[in-house]
Amino acid sequence: MAGEKQKHMDVVSKIKGKKRRGRLNMPLTRIISFGFGGFVAIALALVLYLSVLANFKNTFSLLNDKAILITQSMDRQLRDHFQSVEQAVIDLKPFFDDGTMGFDNIDETLNKLSVAISTNNRINVVVLTDLKGDSFGVYKAQNGKLWPFKRQIPVGGEKTYTLPKLTADSGPTWGALVHSDIGQYSNVSVPLVRDGKMFGSLTAASSIKGLGEVIRSLDEGEDTTTFIIASGDQVIVHSDMDVFQTGNVAEKKLPVAISELGDPVLAGLGSGVRLETFQKAAKLGIEVSDVNTPRDNFIVMRSVIPGYSDKPWVIGQYFRGVTISREVHRLRGSAVVGLGALIVAVLIAIWIGRRVASPLKKLAIQSEHVGKLSLDEVVPLPRSRVQELDQVALAFNSMVEGLKAMNIYVPRSLFSKLMRLGGQEAAGAREAELTILFTDIVGFTALSEHMSATETASYLNEHFSILVEAVENEGGTVDKFIGDGMLAFWGAPDARADHAAAAVRTARSIASALVLCNDKAEAQGHSRVRLRMGIHTGTAVVGNVGALDRWNYTVVGDTVNVTDRLQALGREVGANDEVVILASADTASQLPGEQGEERVGEFVLRGRSTKLDVWKLDPFATTGDAVAAVSTTAA
Asked: Full-prediction pTM beyond 0.85?
């Protein structure tokens, strides 16, 4: 019995083993690939089969959608272009109505108009016209340069706008399209009203050239042509001016009447047969017609919109009639190669996606370092076999090297401040109360006589690195290095109430660092170096100073000269001190709780007729506001 039972179990085990060996086992990747591929193949076959059966219906439906999409895209491009121009005069009008800007202060108004036109790349001219007909405004040349004018528009911009009839209640009104030697212009005007009475008008003009480039970009290739007709029969935009689809060549340049252009398709618009199949497009105001020419027939889609001039515009596009049958052939051909192309496309897309994602991820990481101006942390991007990615890598690496080179001459702290505060606006020259610090090494000329040029440069670089670190730690701005001296200031571009105390803290930080360097130098058998520093608080002009493309963010004025004279006075006051810090009474008065100051008297500084009250500061004492802050905290 036991033997029979064992035989039975052996037979069952063999049967189960055969079942296990006969079961189909496939990797999950293969299952997903075949499952997805089979599903897509079946779905694509059904879609293509139904598409072929209903090709005519679908083709006309697609052409309906195409007519709507293209026409609405052109309409949207037009509106986007001109609404920004119209909105600009709407936004500027209240400033004239409430007296903020006007004819009373023309120079100030021109400056503000220059800002407005520079921030809107679709505006070429902004003009103010009073009731007498006198005009002034700002004209933007083709190279982007701004030309403020009074009564006389700069050469080339004389015919860029035409004033429509306006009343005090008029809204934004578009004038007639203007054609000049430098191009075509649309212009919009609003009345300027104060106390219920119109006292002038504001006009903004925009070139059609930029609009034409945008509209021509909607051209889908050699089989399509986009156009805009204004003033009834004037063609102002045509995407195929070199050679028309009919083989003809333009007889005249734009703008030109339809009859004089030489395009037989546009010339035959009046005799075209309206296609009733395009009902969906017709409900949206889009007319689709069939125009026959001696060479071929064409499908024309057009729509009338309220033109941005005194008359409506016609926008449209036309293409060859054979395009319809061509679409059918393309559907049939796609049925043959669609499945294989889809599989190949998916595999290539996965491979390309991985290849593209990796360098883009590296670019994002390194760009974040650039955004923080942490240029030392930026790792150069590797070259790529993809041309565009390779160009991006080369351009990015070149940009980083350029920024590093720029930071050699422009202090990184100053660059960061100007970026944070708004660039040009923050850098504009202005008066401000500043505290200025001048440093100078005592007897450096004699010291450098025993150094080579390389040793002199190395010594100064090490010395200036100490000074710059101390200045930037206190939020100051290094202006320049003058020989073996340094000019720095506080209070701009960042406005701060403690600029005097910050400058004094910096001077004392420099003094402490100098003593440490001197101790190290003395231990190596070198002589100790002495340093003079002058600090003065007063009003100075700070900002961009220069000419043409040579600008420097700097400080100028009597306050700077006084600081230099204070530093030079150190030859007499504290002549034997290792570090002497002299400050004016204007600076000392802004140091509450200062314990390390001593009045040394009144002096007539070189180049000045009045006496200056001078204070000597202990280089190693605690600055006044720091003492006050400690006392407040303790209390």
From this structure: no
